[in-house]
Amino acid sequence: MSSTASGKNGTWRNWGGNVSARPARQVAPASVDELAAAVRRAAEDGLKVKAVGTGHSFTSIAATDGVLIRPQLLTGIRRIDREAMTVTVEAGTPLKRLNAALAREGLSLTNMGDIMEQTVSGATSTGTHGTGRESASIAAQIKGLELVTADGSVLTCSEKENPDVFAAARTGLGALGVVTAITFAVEPLFLLTAREEPMPFERVLAEFDQLWAENEHFEFYWFPHTGNTNTKRNNRSAGPEQPVGQLAGWFEDEFLSNGVFQVAQWVGRAVPATVPAIARISSRALSARTYTDIPYKVFTSPRRVRFVEMEYAVPRAALAETLRELKAMVDRSGLRVSFPVEVRTAPADDITLSTASGRDSAYIAVHMFRGTPYHAYFTAAERIFTAHEGRPHWGKVHTRDAEYFARVYPRFAEFTALRDRLDPERLFQNDYLRRVLGS
């Protein structure tokens, strides 16, 4: 069952359970023509339009009381071009299906995030990313886009065709039109060796620049209330394949990371005083391991424990200082934080409102178990992130508005001017876009 399954009376809810909406109608177009017709009809009826993927955003970026476009029929690969090394997919294709289909063809994306439940258009429109020295965001791997704009026409864009739209629409927040197809750069399937190992918090920060420089993909998780982290380095490998064994994989990825972790979250939510002790045990539960497999099996892992998340991109050079401030804040606050803090990186890119636009970035993500009060923790964390000119993930909890974004995104006005041109009547507007882009 998709996480965007409608509840009673046509109510739509997101995966995190913190956003719901009651659209006037829901449409699942089976073709680009049907989608364009639905957009034109909505405009005639005076209704706003939003497309939604699998609801993995924690913000109300896809919520609407107008027409909600569901993408489940716009899925699959349109074409693979082995000369150009690109694949064109329908916008509603889940990343999971894309990854598996590409692997069968002996192909892969260069990089991806750590889950693959999202649709390709939902993931790229909100700036979903993994970690990497040379690559990180999925949107940065886009070579071409097709979208239905406010007047119901179909617009295609790339570096050569409508380049101004291409610069913005790769991470378009749903503000410029409804994406119907995406062309990604792909490469021949390769192997990655993952090395996971615990490392003291202070050592990771002291050696961060070196760990970043020496690995194609470096990330780590810090467990609040402890001085412990778990690090992960992914690097290309000549093989042989050495996947995680089924039993070990089940034990580490399902039993510990999802099963026991879920129980620990329940206990922590019921009795907050137990959280630091649980954190100390959790941070030591996962021992070092090394495995080699095809990319999507290394980059992504199942996340069955539901949570709410805030993530900010800060300049990479500011990472150590920002994290030390976060740790000091948690230590003196009396907060009980049961979820690890995830740290990743991305190189600067040229996408107008990408969180890595024009600057090498480090991402710090804070999570709280679903149903636990997260407001105090997120507010205090956000204060630290914004002091470093942090840019929040478009699909994760934050309180920033257009005035703030105009300060931290040098090309912000370029995006809003394009939106004025493509959607002058604000057909694709909702409360979230009104806040983050201005009216």
What does this structure look like?
Helix 7 (246-270) runs antiparallel to helix 8 (275-285). Helices cover 33% and strands 24% of the residues. Strands 16-13-15-14-18-19-17-20 form an 8-stranded antiparallel beta sheet, sandwiched between helices. A 5-stranded antiparallel beta sheet has the order 6-7-11-9-10. The protein has a 3-stranded parallel beta sheet with strand order 3-5-4, with helices on one face. The longest helix has 25 residues, at 246-270. With 439 residues, the chain is α+β, with helices and mostly antiparallel strands.
The tally of helices reads 14
Q: Give the N-terminus to C-terminus distance in angstroms.
A: 36 Å
State the shape: globular
Q: Which structural category fits the helices and strands?
A: alpha+beta
Rg, rounded, reads 21 Å
**Proportion in helices:** 25-40%
Beta content comes to: 15-25%
Q: How many strand segments?
A: 20
Mean pLDDT: 92
Largest sheet: 8 strands, antiparallel
Oligomerization category of the chains in this entry? single chain
Strand order of the largest sheet: 16-13-15-14-18-19-17-20
> Would you identify the regions where 5 or more consecutive residues have pLDDT less than 50?
1-7
